[in-house]
Design goal:
- By secondary structure, this protein is α+β, with helices and mostly antiparallel strands.
- The protein has one domain (8-113): 3-Layer(aba) Sandwich (GIY-YIG endonuclease), CATH 3.40.1440.
- Helices cover 38% and strands 17% of the residues.
- It contains 5 helices and 3 strands; from the N terminus they run ββααβααα.
- It has helices at 28-36, 43-47, 61-72, 76-86, 108-113, and strands at residues 8-13, 20-25, 51-57.
- The chain has a 3-stranded antiparallel β-sheet, sandwiched between helices.
- Strand 1 and strand 2 (20-25) form a beta hairpin.
- The longest helix is centred in the middle third of the chain and has 12 residues, at 61-72.
- 25% of the residues are buried.
Amino acid sequence: MRREKFPAVYIMASGFHGTIYVGVTSDLIGRVWQHRNGAFRGFTDRYGCKRLVWFEAGGDMAGAIAREKQLKNWLRDWKLALIEAENPTWRDLAEDFGFDPLLKTPGADAAEAG
């Protein structure tokens, strides 16, 4: 059975207030799987951006690409505010799609608490 695809802009993070990556896709679940499994060599793999912390779905692909470009031009503080408006704890939203929780690295709880 095929998953329904829909345009989405998303933000992946390495952890709470960590490195963030803005992307666009027509298959959010598939793209999250790719990020989590290191299917892409590059920025998200190098910086461990495996946590889905924000996404916006709907509209068409052209609109999603335009929104992605807009967000990529935003200051980091604006992106953090966008994430925290809907996800103040930076919870991994991928778990809502059935993904297993990410394993915590030693000291991650202390870093996230501070």
